[in-house]
Design a protein that fits this description.
59% of the residues lie in helices and 12% in strands. The protein is of the alpha+beta class and 281 residues long. It has 2 domains: 21-197, no CATH class; 210-275, His-Me finger endonuclease fold, CATH 3.40.1800. It has a 3-stranded mixed beta sheet. Strands 4-5 form a two-stranded antiparallel sheet. A hairpin with a 6-residue loop joins strand 2 and strand 3 (171-178). Helix 2 (41-52) packs parallel to helix 7 (136-147) and helix 5 (91-120) packs antiparallel against helix 8. 14% of the residues are buried. The structure holds zinc ion (ZN). Zinc ion binds at residues 227, 229-230, 232, 263-264, 266-267.
């Protein structure tokens, strides 16, 4: 049988030797690193290259959660439409994000090319050093890699919709990860929607402005100062007459004689409820 019980001083000696070994190893390593840092032209070139490029901060992924207030809303709204709505609410954020990703993608292509050129370049001084010190190249490569810029050139938009019933009995959830191309396409759609709404609003404002007293009089005169629906007249029945857009302004109706008619207050409100819930006409 072997006896493994060494006297205690042997352990202590062993540990001391190990510590000395580790310390000298670390010291050699740091000296080598220091030497490479002082003599490498490539590292200096990479540092100079880094100064020439600006990259924007982009997270690898972003999350948008649409919390629906009812099951009906959950079923109705698509993930794409939910994302589109959020883009309309936060246009600047999405614009910056898409621009930053595109900028990083474009610039990092050029940067990487230049970086590779530096790495593969050779000069006499370095060749000499490399031959004298076989660790030089490896350390230099690692150091270059550690200072190399690596911006995010893509991102993912994690869009989730969810609905939890009262008391939390039932919960629904679905999601889709939009890549930058899908996100850009959704962004363009949202921007078009904003433009359309703006044009529509401007047109509505204009159509209301051109409704003059003179035009109003012409319409009533044409209709015999009577409601065209129920025949009530201001003079005989004492009703208040309105001039109404047949096709509401909110739906693209124009302020012109052919689209205007005389209505009494009652018929007008009845009509309004039916065709134009926003009372925009
Ligand atoms: Zn009427």
């Amino acid at each position: 049988m072997y006896n493994f019980d060494f006297p205690p001083f042997i352990y202590i000696d062993f540990i001391c030797v190990l510590i000395i070994f580790i310390i000298s190893l670390v010291s050699i390593k740091s000296k080598r690193k220091e030497f490479v840092l002082q003599n490498s032209q490539k590292i200096q070139k990479v540092k100079d290259l880094n100064k020439k490029y600006v990259f924007y901060p982009v997270n690898p992924s972003y999350t948008y959660i649409k919390r629906c207030v009812s099951k009906k809303e959950y079923d109705r709204i698509s993930l794409y439409d939910a994302l589109c709505d959020d883009i309309i609410q936060h246009t600047i954020f999405y614009k910056d994000l898409i621009n930053s990703v595109n900028h990083n993608k474009k610039q990092s292509n050029i940067y990487n090319n230049e970086y590779q050129k530096i790495l593969t370049s050779c000069n006499d001084v370095e060749n000499e050093l490399c031959e004298n010190n076989r660790f030089f190249k490896k350390i230099e490569y690692d150091l270059c890699d550690s200072i190399r810029l690596s911006p995010n050139t893509s991102t993912t938009m994690h869009v989730k919709k969810s609905y939890v019933s009262p008391q939390g009995r039932k919960s629904y959830e679905t999601y889709h990860d939009y890549n930058i191309e899908e996100l850009s396409s959704c962004y363009n759609n949202a921007v078009n929607k904003i433009k359309e709404t703006k044009t529509k609003k401007e047109n509505m404002k204009y159509q209301r402005e051109i409704m003059t007293d003179s035009l109003r009089y012409d319409v009533m005169k044409r209709d015999g100062f009577k409601c065209v629906l129920c025949g009530a007249s201001a003079q005989r029945d004492g009703v208040k007459l309105h001039v109404d857009h047949i096709k509401p302004v909110s739906k693209g109706g124009k302020t012109e004689l052919s689209n205007l008619r005389t209505l009494c207050e009652r018929c007008n409100f009845g009509k309004r409820d039916k065709y134009d819930p926003y009372g925009a006409n």
